[in-house]
Design a protein that fits this description.
With about 160 residues, the protein is α+β, with helices and mostly antiparallel strands. The chain has helices spanning about 15-25, 60-70, 105-120, 125-135, 155-160; strands at about 10, 25-30, 40-45, 45-50, 50-55, 70-85, 90-100, 140-155. The longest helix is centred in the C-terminal third of the chain and has 15 residues, at about 105-120.
Length: about 160
């Protein structure tokens, strides 16, 4: 159902791809937007257990698009180093395809909110609990069930010449 990557030598193994998803803090969510236009939007997220979680306002372009079509893609760029002398960039990135849903289960929702808080505001678990109690009901929590994931790196990183790291 999903295309195989054409340049297999540049393919990251699944563990590397998952490590990039856990490490990075911003990804681009792509949805089927209004009037057939694609809609891509950066979101803060957390990756765990084969799912990507992010929060959203209860109304807006993302939620409208998800209501029409649950299929999404999500892209994270770990590295994008410009190398002018070689007319290229040394990159590492991951793209995910999956289906998004609004989390309705209270335990899953709470756990995801706590993971998001721990990632973006570490060291204040009591403040996080207060924030969740105060504003947690004012937002949607969205989960992307990962169906396919591909990590890729520049050929120069996959097969670096001697003396280059």
């Amino acid at each position: 159902m999903f295309r195989e990557m054409r340049r297999r030598r540049q393919l990251l193994d699944p563990e590397e791809s998952e490590a990039i998803l856990r490490k990075m803090t911003c990804g681009t969510l792509a949805l089927a937007g209004d009037d057939g236009y694609p809609y891509a939007v950066p979101v803060s997220y957390v990756f765990t257990g084969g799912r990507i979680y992010f929060h959203s306002a209860k109304a807006g372009h993302k939620i409208d698009a998800l209501a029409r079509n649950e299929k999404v893609s999500f892209c994270v760029v770990e590295q994008d180093r410009i190398v002018p002398a070689e007319f290229t960039t040394y990159f590492r990135s991951v793209i995910v395809f999956g289906r998004a849903r609004i989390v309705t289960d209270g335990d899953e929702r709470r756990a995801a909110l706590e993971m998001l808080g721990a990632k973006y505001a570490p060291g204040d678990p009591q403040g996080l609990r207060r924030e969740i109690e105060k504003d947690g009901d004012r937002l949607h929590l969205v989960a992307i069930e990962v169906e396919h994931m591909t990590g890729k790196e520049a050929i120069e990183l996959a097969n670096p010449p001697r003396g280059r790291s």
